[in-house]
Design goal:
This protein is an alpha/beta fold. The protein is built from 10 helices and 8 strands. The protein has an 8-stranded parallel beta sheet. Helix 2 links the parallel strand 2 and strand 3. The longest helix is centred in the middle third of the chain and has 19 residues. The structure holds 6-hydroxymethylpterin-diphosphate (HH2).
């Protein structure tokens, strides 16, 4: 297995100030900074999945992400991922130069999602989510969160393969924070990542600045969650994840590289 990839988050959403939003120019400038900080890939999103966020019409989402993807593509060879649940947006993004479709619904949002992923031939991230973004945090229920998320991801991978997605293009993601109780579900899920890794697909982990960190540490606001973000990312690295999706690229790259250097020195 190669080094863990650090994927930098770029939000092309007007309501996001810290990670590139406001305007296409600001998003591209943010991507440029993350690439300079060592990002192995950039994940561009035009619709927030936060509980309570308003849905974005498909044309508006395309208008937000395509100029950003084109501009990054024009100045850097870094692979670009599109964070969307809409196949139309994924198509436009891949046409503009994206190499990966990151779908928090694991290709369940639209009936044509599976076929679109197969046709596009790009890398595909299948993420676990219980419920819908607007209501998913209301009352998430699991008997065994690790087993249920693992089984779901295995089933979605099989559905994608059956629809014609190449096995080697499939990534899995446990969906930390998506329909999971802050403590009772997110923590055992991160602790149990090895079981998802054992399915044999590359695993992507997104823990950066998430709410569960605040639930462990004194309700820390998002801009004070770097320590917890790195701690959780390194738990993923220890479990064998292939990539981490983060806001703080420079610090995460350093943490991951030091972790890998120490692991390689083990006698
Ligand atoms: N988390 C968010 C968005 N997209 N995609 C994957 N594959 N895995 C994740 O964990 C993941 C994701 C969180 O989204 P949001 O709350 O909108 O914030 P941000 O995009 O700033 O992380």
């Amino acid at each position: 297995m190669g080094p863990v990839r650090v994927i930098g988050v770029v939000n092309a959403t007007p309501d996001s100030f810290s990670d590139g939003g406001r305007s296409p120019e600001a998003a591209v400038a943010h991507a440029r900074r993350l690439i300079a900080e060592g990002a192995d890939m950039i994940d561009v999103g035009g619709e927030s999945t936060r509980p309570g966020a308003t849905a974005v019409p498909v044309d508006e989402e395309i208008a937000r992400v395509v100029p950003v993807i084109r501009a990054i593509r024009a100045e850097s060879p870094v692979p670009i991922s599109i964070d969307t649940m809409k196949p139309k947006v994924a198509r436009a993004a891949v046409a503009a130069g994206a190499a990966m479709w990151n779908d928090v619904t694991a290709l369940r949002h639209a009936p044509e999602s599976l076929a679109a992923a197969a046709e596009l031939g790009c890398e595909v991230v299948l993420m676990h989510m219980q419920g819908e973004p607007a209501t998913m945090q209301a009352e998430p229920v699991y008997a065994d969160v690790v087993a249920e998320v693992t089984d779901f991801l295995a089933a979605r991978a099989q559905a994608a393969i059956a629809a014609g997605v190449a096995r080697e293009r499939i990534w899995l993601d446990p969906g930390v924070g998506f329909g999971k109780h802050m403590i009772r579900h997110n923590l055992p899920l991160i602790a149990g990542l090895e079981r998802i890794v054992a399915l044999g697909f590359p695993v992507l982990l997104g823990v950066s600045r998430k709410r569960f960190i605040a639930a462990v540490d004194r309700e820390a606001p998002p801009d004070q969650r770097l320590g917890g973000s790195i701690a959780a990312a390194l738990m993923g690295v220890a479990a064998g994840v292939a990539a981490v999706r983060v806001h703080d690229v420079r610090e995460t790259v350093q943490a991951v590289r030091v972790w890998e250097a120490i692991a390689a020195a083990r006698t």
